[in-house]
């Protein structure tokens, strides 16, 4: 094996493990000084109070001083109302020794403020009103209750776990002397009180060791922590990225959930360990109310979850008795540095809350169509011939495929922006071979830069001082794929600009504007660093410590790449895949769940993880089909394709040590099952594309957990083996080995257990009741239902790539509800450029009522297209129509109606997409 | 079709035009676009109602719906010229070149797939390149034919030489058979001599022993040992034979957790079979002699009876349990065995699958493996006895020599048979490659192929040679002698054993032209040799191709 050579052998030696990650390589809360300290507050509580007389109110906010009654340190408190039932709460030191880091670039822009008015101000209590929302601020002990339409939905510091370590000078002794420790100002108010409570005697307060790594911690303890209770909620979810259930589990007796972007080798499932991404948004959901909190902090963060693990029985008991016996679910966010900057999202419905979060951090842009189609990747396609022949094989076996991917081996010795001249002597020809077939190429570019003096990029970064620095001011040198490597400081706008310019086609001449990007290893991954990442005492632009900004590093990398791609070809929508991510990264890139394993449990977690990511802004999520590590057998691979076909990002990828697994290398039956799954994906591309447009438009996630659309159904809360595509499809992939049946949960729409009607998309067989139903499956079956009342656009013609389907005709699938009605939207444009933002688009709503289908355009349909409607399928009609007639511009024509399975097909309406029409069913 | 203009209906007009155009232009038989000449007769409207039936018979439609850009037939047969049906086929006539069927998914997708451009609408502007391609293909066929013709001459020489070699082997084999018969006769004779000499010898020793009887009294107990062992064995036989059928089966052993040698919590079939000397079941006798010696140490270990080092016991057999997997070296402590087993790259080649045992062997053998060889100094015999012993020794040596010679003969016969079974092609043309080696260098490695022996790889910067595979068999499909497989090479780190597939093509000189590793640890060699040049077969192939055109 060529690969098992020199450097890589050493790297692998670092992780010789057969059964997944060794958790011992990563910190527990107990091994992390600030987590230990912050968590300790949970037993005694803290004493913070607003200082009377310091309140100032403004049109959209109020400020006051907050004091720690034990050490008398003072803080500046600010509460601001934002548009869309959102409040922003900030707490910083009033006069810190040194500025504390405030997260930048995560929000999509300055949030829009909303007016407030003071309703009441008494001694210990201020009540403010903003639209239909209310915030009640209690002075002592400090606490804020947020009401949505007079229902208490979020309580801040109800548990008194607020913990704010003010910056302090380092004293001679290990334990700082309280008297010396305090700053001179503001002391007069509190001189009489002893300061013993201010001492931080944790041995890790001023320096910390983990394994062989030393963290110098020059600024000492600076943690911030705060608790949020959700009185109207029964379950909590959010805070990706973890390989765990959708509903967050109680952390009582376990470590908290950890948010610290890490490259975890062979991660394990059902775990609260940190993974590659951090999105510190949490939601509390109950039948009547949903609310959220976005904790904007980029430092290492741990989140304790307090929730009663309810089961059906206990929730029934609660329901019957009408009382809540347990305290409301709560989350305790604990961050190593920075300030308290929390956004309170007041809902009231799940979708409102998701949209409130999207209003803050933005959404994915509408991707090019190819990005939503099938991607073929492997570490690595060895050379040009390999790439071309794999592409040709997809045609030979008539399986659609849009994008070939090249992992790190295409580079000249892991020097990004270069090619291996032996394996890839003619990249432009190879790229042309793909693009001529409507396909795309994606290449990887990682942030670690090989320390090689003859490598231009390294030279320039060194000469210009673009690398992240050590505490001593030298270029930090870590170890990654290229061997010794340094890391550009993307926090510096000049570095980002420089980096972006590298993507220009006159710089990176061996690609074309159709070659898109994959940014991996951007946690950043440092093989020889503490916990496989960068040391916390590195120094970034603006003199911030890596500690302050760690979780944003990947985000800043993406900003550089995204700018580069936009500058390279301003009218083409960039596509980037990233592994590390932070709140807001969805504006730049799609994500995948990283280095998973060819195992059924990882297949199951692909849904759980992507659902959590989707409600945290990352709808464009997928998992490596087949599993990155290990060799899937035929059955697992088939099921994985079927599952992946219904996740937004659909890519097969595999580790270099695995066997090849292109579909034709498996028995014919497996190949057919895979082909069917891929074809199914392609047939639904109009739906995916519409959903992504509507995501950009409204912030509504593309895929959803059941509770998003069925908030009243308690039993649906914890269902995370199923997903919804918008409000149109219900998908329950087969994710167990050797089963001939799966249990599918059909959610209830009300307390009386009424459900929507659901139609099997293959047979149009109708499911009329809510609850669990056992459904038979064969190897080819993907259990998917379309909701009665919805209309789904499809394209049922096969092409070798999605880009070649642009002019193909549409099929509309109409599934009727109990009132024989249905509606649904379709969006289309050129599927590639930004012209849609200049209005060159068609967004249309279809409505079916009274045996009649009509369309209504949203705005003027300005995109010119040859596409037309070739077929309309209607399921749920009570009797068979004899014919149909279409009327366009007052002129009517008869259409044939054919019965097909349990549906009827209106043959060939032939009408173009931008034309108003009416189709009426006729009965003799 | 009058309604079309009203609702702005699409491409149909264009398609109908295409249909007509094609019906005229393709001269011979009028037929819908995308239909081959052979199938033209299937696309005729039924007289009277102008209807047409899907080729799968599933339904009838108006003939006007053939190629109307809407899929009516489940088999896609109504849309041979459009992309409307996912299962359809489009026939490119490709006049001047080879006709092909392409999937309907490639029709009207803006990409010219047929060299005559018939799969795309005229606006796409596909050039007709069939004549050029056809001419180029003809040139290539001629060149290949020439190559095969010249190569076939060399192949003839190889065949001659191969047949000659085979004849030599046959002759040699006959000779060996003859010698074997002679040696077998000689062996009976020597056996007789040995028997006589040994009889005399033992008689003399018996006398001598008589005198020693007293001294040896205490060793009597040791002789009873086998008896005792048999008793133990029988007892456990009864215990294991839970279904009382007089046999101990694999499944009966699998319940005994003491036999979980790799301690993974289950006794696998493989593990159980090991104790039954790789049989499915054993009877009492076989159990006593073959199975019990393997089971006993574990049983004793389980009962806590086994305390290494152990006082004298009939342990030689037990020792074999742990050492049989390695070469006939004296038993070693298991740590050394582990080391030996760890050296996979070297050992795996030599020992094939057997070395798996070394990997799996837990250290149950600790301390048991000290060989029970008693260092007894030979007694002082009287001269007559010594002479008889001497004679017996000579008789034994003489017999051994004959047996050795027989073994050598058998070995050579086996080698010849092996060679004959390797399959040197249809007419022995490959025989001359056996014993040859060919090298190929790329940027990092030198690859070697020694046909019928092995494929290997060596770093150009030095280091040991890595076996990529040993000769396995011919695997070409449908032409058996177009592909060879070499398997069971050195095992990969954290992966399978390496293997190599050799693709073979005709050329004038034997050489490797490329080596690749598309799959981790699975190598592909491109090998050229005149042995693959077959003028007649090539001719037949091209004529077949020509007929299809």
Summarize the helix and strand pattern of chain B as letters: HEEEEHHEHHEHHHHHHEEEEEEEEH
CATH superfamily of the largest domain in chain A: glycosyl hydrolase (family 31)
Reading off the top of the CATH hierarchy, the class of the largest domain in chain A is best stated as Mainly Beta
Q: Which ranges of chain A are low-confidence, i.e. pLDDT below 50, for 5 or more consecutive residues?
A: 1-18, 174-196
Helix proportion of residues of chain A, in percent? 10-25%
CATH topology category name of the largest domain in chain A? Immunoglobulin-like
Model regions low in confidence, pLDDT < 50 over at least 5 residues of chain B: 1-27, 308-375
**What is the helix content of chain B?**
40-55%
Oligomeric state of shown chains: heterodimer
Mean pLDDT of chain B: 80
The CATH architecture name of the largest domain in chain A reads Sandwich
Strand order of the largest sheet of chain B: 7-8-9-10-11-12-14-13
Radius of gyration of chain B: 38 Å
Structural classification of chain A? alpha+beta
């Amino acid at each position: 094996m060529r690969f098992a050579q020199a450097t890589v052998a050493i790297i692998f030696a670092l992780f010789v493990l057969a059964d997944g990650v060794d958790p011992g390589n990563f910190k527990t809360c107990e091994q992390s000084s600030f987590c230990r300290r912050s968590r300790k507050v949970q037993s005694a509580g803290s004493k913070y109070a607003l200082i009377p007389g310091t309140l100032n109110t403004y049109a959209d906010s109020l400020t006051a001083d907050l004091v720690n009654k034990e050490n008398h340190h003072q803080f500046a408190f600010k509460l601001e109302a934002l548009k869309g039932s959102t409040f922003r709460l900030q707490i910083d030191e009033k006069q810190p020794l040194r500025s504390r880091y405030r997260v930048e670039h995560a929000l999509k822009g300055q949030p829009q403020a909303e007016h407030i008015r003071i309703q009441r101000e008494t001694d210990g209590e201020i009540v403010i009103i903003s639209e239909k929302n209310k915030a009640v601020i209690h002075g002592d002990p400090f606490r804020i209750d947020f009401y949505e339409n007079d229902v208490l939905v979020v309580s801040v510091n109800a548990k008194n776990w607020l913990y704010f370590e003010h910056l302090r000078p380092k004293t001679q002794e290990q334990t700082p002397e309280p008297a010396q420790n305090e700053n001179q100002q503001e002391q007069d108010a509190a001189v009489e009180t002893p300061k013993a409570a201010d001492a931080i005697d944790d041995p890790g307060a001023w320096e910390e060791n983990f394994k062989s790594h030393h963290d110098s911690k020059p600024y000492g303890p600076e943690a911030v922590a705060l608790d949020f209770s959700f009185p109207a909620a029964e379950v909590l979810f959010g805070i990706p990225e973890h390989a765990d259930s959708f509903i967050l589990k109680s952390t009582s007796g376990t470590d908290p959930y950890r948010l610290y972007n890490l490259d975890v080798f062979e991660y394990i499932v059902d775990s609260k360990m940190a993974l590659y991404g951090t999105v510190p948004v949490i939601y509390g959901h109950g039948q009547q109310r949903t609310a959220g909190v976005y904790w904007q902090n980029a430092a290492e963060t741990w989140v304790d979850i307090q929730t009663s693990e309810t089961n059906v029985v206990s929730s029934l008991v609660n329901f019957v008795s009408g009382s809540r016996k347990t305290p409301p679910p709560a989350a305790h966010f604990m961050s190593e540095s920075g300030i308290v900057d929390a956004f309170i999202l007041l809902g009231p419905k799940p979708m409102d809350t998701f949209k409130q979060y999207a209003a803050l951090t933005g959404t994915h842009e509408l991707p090019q169509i190819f990005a939503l189609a099938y991607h073929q990747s492997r570490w690595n396609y060895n050379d040009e011939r390999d790439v071309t022949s794999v592409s040709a094989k997809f045609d030979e076996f008539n399986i659609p495929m849009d994008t070939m991917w090249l992992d790190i081996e295409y580079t000249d010795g892991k020097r990004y922006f270069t090619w291996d001249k032996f394996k890839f002597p003619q990249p432009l020809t190879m790229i042309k071979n793909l693009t001529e077939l409507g396909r795309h190429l994606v290449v990887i570019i990682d942030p670690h830069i090989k320390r090689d003096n003859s490598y231009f990029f390294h030279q320039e970064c060194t000469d210009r001082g673009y690398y992240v620095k050590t505490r001593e001011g030298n270029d930090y040198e870590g170890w990654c794929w290229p061997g010794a490597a340094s890391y550009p400081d993307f926090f510096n706008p000049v570095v980002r600009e420089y980096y972006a310019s590298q993507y220009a086609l006159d710089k990176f001449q061996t690609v074309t504007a159709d070659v898109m990007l994959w940014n991996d290893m951007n946690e950043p991954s440092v093989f020889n660093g503490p916990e496989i990442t960068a040391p916390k005492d590195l120094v970034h632009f603006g003199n911030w410590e890596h500690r302050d900004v760690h979780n944003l590093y990947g985000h800043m990398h993406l900003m550089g790449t995204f700018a580069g791609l936009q500058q390279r070809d301003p009218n083409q929508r960039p596509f980037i895949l990233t592994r590390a991510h932070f709140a807001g990264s969805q504006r730049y890139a799609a994500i995948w769940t990283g280095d998973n394993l060819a195992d059924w449990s990882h297949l199951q977690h692909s849904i759980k993880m992507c659902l959590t990511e989707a409600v945290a802004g990352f709808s464009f999520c997928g998992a490596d089909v087949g599993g990155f590590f290990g060799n899937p057998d035929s059955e697992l691979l088939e099921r994985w394709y079927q599952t992946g076909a219904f996740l937004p990002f659909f890519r097969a990828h595999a580790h270099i040590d695995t066997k090849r697994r292109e579909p034709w290398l498996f028995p014919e039956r497996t190949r057919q099952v895979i082909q069917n799954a891929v074809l199914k994906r392609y047939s639904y591309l109009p739906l995916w594309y519409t959903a992504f447009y509507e995501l950009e438009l409204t912030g509504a996630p593309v895929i959803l957990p059941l509770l998003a659309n069925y908030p009243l159904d308690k039993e649906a809360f914890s269902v995370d083996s199923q997903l919804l595509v918008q409000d149109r499809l219900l998908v329950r992939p087969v994710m167990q080995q050797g089963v001939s049946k799966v249990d599918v949960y059909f959610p209830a729409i009300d307390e009386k257990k009424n459900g929507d009607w659901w139609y099997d998309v293959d047979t149009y067989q109708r499911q009329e009741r809510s609850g669990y139903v056992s459904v038979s499956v064969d190897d080819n079956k993907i259990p998917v239902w379309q909701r009665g009342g919805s209309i789904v656009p499809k394209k049922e013609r096969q092409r070798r790539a999605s880009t070649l389907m642009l002019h193909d005709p549409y099929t509309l699938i109409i599934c009727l509800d109990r009132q024989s009605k249905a509606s649904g939207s379709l969006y289309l444009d050129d599927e590639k450029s930004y012209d849609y933002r200049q209005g060159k688009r068609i967004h249309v709503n279809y409505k079916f009522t009274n045996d009649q289908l009509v369309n209504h355009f949203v705005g003027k349909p300005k995109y010119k297209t040859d596409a037309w409607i070739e077929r309309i399928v209607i399921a749920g009609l009570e009797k068979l129509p004899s014919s149909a007639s279409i009327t366009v511009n007052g002129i009517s024509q008869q259409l044939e109606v054919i019965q097909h399975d349990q549906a009827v097909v209106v043959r060939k309406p032939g009408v173009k997409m931008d034309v108003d029409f009416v189709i009426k069913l006729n009965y003799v | 079709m009058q309604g079309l203009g009203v609702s702005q209906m699409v491409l149909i007009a264009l398609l109908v035009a295409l249909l007509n155009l094609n019906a005229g232009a393709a001269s011979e038989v009028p037929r819908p676009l995308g239909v081959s000449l052979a199938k033209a007769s299937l696309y005729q409207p039924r007289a009277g109602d102008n209807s047409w039936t899907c080729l799968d018979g599933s339904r009838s439609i108006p003939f006007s719906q053939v190629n109307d850009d809407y899929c009516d037939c489940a088999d896609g047969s109504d849309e041979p010229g459009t992309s409307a049906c996912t299962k359809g086929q489009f026939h490119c006539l490709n006049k001047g070149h080879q006709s092909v069927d392409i999937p309907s998914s490639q029709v009207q997708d803006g990409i010219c797939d047929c060299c005559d451009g018939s799969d795309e609408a005229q606006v796409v502007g596909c050039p007709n390149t069939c004549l050029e391609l056809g001419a180029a293909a003809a040139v290539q066929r001629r060149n290949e034919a020439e190559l095969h013709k010249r190569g076939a001459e060399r192949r003839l020489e190889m065949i001659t030489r191969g047949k000659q070699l085979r004849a030599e082997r046959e002759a040699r084999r006959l000779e060996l058979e003859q010698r074997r018969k002679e040696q077998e006769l000689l062996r009976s004779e020597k056996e007789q001599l040995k028997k006589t000499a040994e009889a005399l010898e033992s008689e003399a020793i018996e006398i001598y022993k008589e005198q020693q009887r007293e001294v040896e009294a205490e060793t009597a107990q040791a002789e009873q040992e086998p008896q005792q062992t048999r008793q133990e064995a029988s007892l456990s036989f009864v215990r294991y034979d839970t279904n009382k059928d007089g046999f101990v089966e694999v499944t009966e052993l699998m319940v005994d957790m003491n036999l979980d040698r790799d301690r993974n919590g289950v006794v696998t079939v493989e593990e159980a079979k090991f104790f039954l000397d790789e049989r499915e079941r054993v009877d009492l006798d076989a159990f006593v002699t073959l199975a019990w010696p393997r089971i006993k140490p574990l049983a004793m270990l389980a009962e806590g009876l086994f305390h290494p080092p152990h006082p004298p016991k009939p342990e030689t057999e037990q020792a074999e349990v742990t050492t049989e997997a390695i070469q006939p070296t004296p038993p070693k402590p298991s740590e050394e065995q582990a080391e030996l087993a760890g050296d996979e790259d070297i050992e795996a080649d030599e020992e094939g699958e057997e070395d798996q045992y070394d990997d799996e062997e837990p250290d149950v053998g600790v301390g048991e493996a000290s060989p029970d060889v008693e260092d007894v100094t030979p007694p002082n015999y009287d001269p007559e006895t010594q002479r008889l012993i001497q004679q017996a020794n000579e008789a034994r040596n003489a017999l051994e020599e004959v047996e050795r010679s027989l073994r050598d003969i058998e070995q050579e016969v086996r080698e010849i048979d092996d060679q004959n079974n390797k399959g040197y092609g249809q007419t022995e043309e490959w025989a001359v490659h056996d014993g040859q080696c060919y090298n190929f260098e790329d940027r990092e490695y030198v690859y070697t192929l020694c046909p019928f022996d092995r494929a290997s790889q060596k770093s150009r910067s030095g280091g040991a040679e890595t076996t990529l595979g040993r000769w396995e068999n011919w695997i070409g499909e449908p032409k058996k002698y177009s592909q060879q497989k070499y398997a069971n090479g050195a095992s990969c780190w954290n992966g399978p054993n390496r293997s190599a597939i050799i693709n073979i093509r005709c050329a004038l000189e034997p050489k490797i032209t490329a080596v690749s590793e598309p799959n981790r640890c699975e190598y592909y060699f491109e090998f050229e040799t005149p042995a693959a040049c077959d003028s007649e077969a090539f001719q037949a192939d091209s004529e077949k191709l020509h007929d299809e055109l």
